[in-house]
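User: Let's play a game. I give you a shape written as tokens, and you guess the letters that built it. Ready? Here's round one.
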């Protein structure tokens, strides 16, 4: 009977450890949606924007390209870039769910909108592009954006 209890204990420990690991990792097919949902919450909060928080979604040297121009490279540079975005808007939100999304290999293609209020004026941008996923994290984002800069 003692061996049975030890086996049950080990099984429960295995399940609880496995569940914890899953909670801290992202689905490759949904990481972009998970990141944008997190980003939306971050942008309306007063929370500090940190390198560590971006590192949970992005590879160390991830790049974001908008309209063919590199906007930011590396998680160490993302907090300042996104802090500036938050500071210059009264409100900003990536509308979820995406209008369109499909996954092909390690690429997530998307069409989504962003709604922002700057200087009391509402603006909506249309964003189309893709993200590359490496080992469960975003390594590259390239978007064509119309209507908000």
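Assistant: Ready! My guess for every position:
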């Amino acid at each position: 009977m003692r061996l049975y209890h030890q086996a049950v204990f080990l099984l429960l420990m295995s399940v609880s450890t496995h569940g914890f690991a899953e909670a801290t990792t992202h689905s490759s097919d949904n990481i972009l949606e998970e990141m944008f949902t997190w980003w939306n919450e971050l942008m309306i909060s007063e929370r500090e924007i940190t390198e560590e928080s971006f590192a949970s979604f992005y590879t160390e040297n991830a790049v974001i390209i908008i309209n063919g121009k590199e906007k930011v490279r590396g998680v160490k540079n993302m907090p300042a870039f996104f802090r500036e975005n938050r500071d210059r808007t009264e409100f900003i939100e990536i509308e979820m769910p995406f209008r369109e999304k499909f996954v092909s290999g390690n690429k997530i293609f998307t069409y989504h909108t962003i709604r922002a209020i700057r200087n009391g004026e509402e603006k909506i941008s249309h964003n189309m592009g893709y993200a590359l996923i490496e080992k469960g994290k975003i390594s590259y984002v390239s978007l064509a954006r119309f209507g908000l800069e």
